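quick q for whoever's on today - can somebody do inverse folding on this one?? i tried earlier but teh output was garbage lol. tokens:
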């Protein structure tokens, strides 16, 4: 049962014949007849009694007529609301988006391109922060409309970081962010298949000085305490030290692709988790035009 069939049915009842309904709807009489027959077939009932004076509704037809009016009214109301929501979203001219420094350089430009393609008039103010806690606090306080973080699992913070005490945030996963465990080309495990986390017990792993770094949290879940941590600082420092054999580094694939292609780093073949680029926003703003515009354009 489709809305166009209900509109045709309602027109036949109102006009009293297929011919008059066809004129009112701007359709061919055969199209109106076919729509009525298809509707009757889908319901398994006869809706009209056809006689020389025209078409009269059966009891089933009378019952459907009351439903048709309500369903068509609701469909029209839904259409108006959707159009109004879209119009409100298009009135938004700017959004405030936060992002972790570790992903701002590589992942945020793709999001901005997506936004520019879908909402050319939308201006995005990007705020880059080294601290995830600062970003999430700013979102909860309304200083940012949304923020991009790295996470995994079914709930915000499943990677192992705390969520704001002020209240939960809603989120949507945009893109996967695969991780790669890299080391120098002469690492003993280079080219070895079937490795497991236990094979790396006692080895050195380069980590960011911030304990809440997404890649350090992923390493904690993967290796536990059996791997020695070496504080190395930023992603760039970890990558450089890994090239020189100071230790291994668990980094996003986008950060080491050039080194892997050049042969200055090698990927060690260990099954690794995939993080997700996660867009977060306050539940209270889910229906706000700014948030809706950002969600529509980013997803």
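ok took a stab at it. sequence:
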């Amino acid at each position: 049962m489709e809305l166009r069939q209900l509109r045709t049915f309602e027109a036949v009842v109102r006009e009293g014949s297929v011919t008059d309904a066809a004129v009112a709807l701007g359709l061919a009489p055969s199209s109106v007849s076919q729509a009525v027959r298809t509707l009757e077939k889908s319901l398994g009932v006869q809706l009209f009694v056809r006689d020389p004076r025209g078409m009269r509704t059966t009891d089933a037809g009378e019952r459907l007529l009351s439903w048709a009016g309500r369903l068509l009214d609701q469909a029209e109301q839904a259409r108006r609301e959707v159009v109004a929501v879209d119009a409100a979203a298009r009135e938004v001219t700017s959004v405030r988006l936060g992002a972790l420094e570790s992903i701002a350089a590589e992942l945020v430009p793709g999001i901005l391109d997506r936004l520019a393609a879908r909402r050319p008039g939308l201006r995005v103010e990007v705020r880059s922060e080294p601290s995830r806690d600062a970003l999430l606090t700013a979102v909860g306080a309304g200083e940012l409309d949304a923020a991009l973080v790295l996470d995994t699992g079914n709930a915000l913070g499943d990677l192992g970081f705390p969520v704001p005490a002020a209240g939960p945030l809603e989120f949507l996963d945009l893109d996967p962010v695969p991780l790669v465990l890299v080391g120098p080309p002469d690492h003993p495990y280079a080219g070895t298949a079937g490795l497991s986390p236990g094979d790396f017990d006692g080895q050195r792993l380069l980590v960011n000085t911030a304990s809440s770094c997404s890649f350090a949290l992923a390493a904690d879940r993967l290796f536990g305490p059996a791997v020695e941590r070496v504080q190395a600082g930023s992603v760039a420092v970890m990558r450089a030290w890994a090239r020189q054999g100071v230790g291994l580094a668990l980094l996003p694939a986008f950060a080491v692709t050039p080194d892997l292609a050049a042969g200055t780093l090698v990927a060690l073949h260990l099954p690794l988790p995939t993080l997700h680029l996660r867009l977060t926003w306050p539940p209270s703003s889910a229906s706000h035009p700014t948030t809706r515009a950002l969600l529509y354009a980013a997803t």
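fwiw The longest helix spans residues 59-91. also Residues 180 and 192 are 15 Å apart (CA to CA). so keep that in mind when u check it
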